[in-house]
């Protein structure tokens, strides 16, 4: 029997929320962000992850209109993982020595910024699901026409991707639908992304401007606007 671990952006939202809860509760004890592990044990095509099967949850992905948003979420978290892992390197007598770049308190602040980003995404997803009637059982949604109406919304949003503002953050996600300004749930995630980026860039500026420029240059483009 085989076990597959899905990419974080492909995890069910129950596993993402469980990860978020664990991360928030234990952030002061951690040295790095724990990864979301959505495991599926068994045959190819199985519809339930192990955790949802055990707890009898429906095992649903993040809402279809938000596939670009969940991609952006984990692109930003992976960027902060890279920032957090950075070391200072000193060359001394032909040897390359590594020293911590961040203090323990700095590391906690970066991890808490990641927690806040996840919190903003959760709030955004909850608002979106409530606004579109997705916060009820799947069978109920299909019976009352919610699923059909939502599919029309997703199709329209996918067709409008070329005019999205902010733009998709990279070519890989350029054809994935995401919330736009004015949609229920857009603002909490937009504000969380902006705060996340500003917090970490400000910390890098205080440490070393050269290092800040390197990391800022690799920040996923189009996610937030700096003044």
Descriptive report:
With about 230 residues, the chain is mainly alpha-helical. It is built from eight helices and four strands. The strands form two sheets. The protein has a two-stranded antiparallel sheet. A hairpin with a 2-residue loop joins β3 and β4. α4 runs antiparallel to α7. The longest helix has 28 residues. The chain is globular and about 70 Å long. The model has no long low-confidence stretch (mean pLDDT about 85).
Summed over residues and divided by their number, the pLDDT gives a mean of 87
Helicity level: 40-55%
Quickly give the structural class.
mainly alpha
Figure out the total of helices: 8
Shape descriptor:
globular
Low-pLDDT residue intervals, each spanning 5 or more residues: none
Let me know the largest β-sheet: 2 strands, antiparallel
Can you summarize this structure?
The chain is mainly alpha-helical. It contains eight helices and four strands; from the N terminus they run βαβααββααααα. The strands form two sheets. It has a two-stranded antiparallel ribbon with strand order 1-2. Strands 3-4 form a two-stranded antiparallel sheet.
Brief descriptors of the model:
two-stranded antiparallel sheet, mainly alpha, 8 helices, 4 strands, single chain, globular, 227 residues, two-stranded antiparallel ribbon
């Amino acid at each position: 029997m085989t076990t597959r671990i899905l990419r974080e952006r492909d995890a069910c939202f129950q596993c993402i929320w469980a990860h978020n809860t664990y991360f928030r509760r234990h952030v002061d004890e951690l040295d790095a962000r724990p990864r979301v592990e959505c495991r599926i044990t068994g045959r190819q095509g199985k519809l339930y992850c192990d955790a949802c099967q055990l707890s009898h949850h429906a095992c649903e992905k993040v809402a279809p209109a938000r596939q670009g948003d969940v991609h952006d979420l984990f692109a930003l978290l992976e960027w902060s993982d890279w920032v957090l892992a950075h070391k200072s390197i000193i060359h001394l007598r032909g040897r390359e020595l590594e020293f911590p770049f961040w203090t323990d308190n700095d590391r906690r602040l970066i991890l808490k910024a990641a927690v806040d980003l996840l919190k903003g995404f959760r709030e955004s997803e909850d608002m979106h699901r409530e606004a579109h009637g997705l916060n009820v059982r799947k069978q109920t949604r299909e019976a009352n026409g919610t699923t059909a109406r939502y599919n029309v919304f997703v199709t329209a949003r996918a067709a409008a991707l070329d005019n999205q503002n902010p733009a998709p953050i990279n070519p890989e996600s350029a054809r994935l639908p995401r919330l736009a300004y004015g949609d229920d749930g857009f603002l909490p995630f937009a504000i969380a992304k902006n705060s996340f980026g500003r917090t970490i860039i400000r910390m890098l500026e205080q440490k070393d401007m050269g290092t800040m420029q390197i990391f800022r240059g690799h920040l996923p483009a189009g996610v937030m606007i700096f003044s």
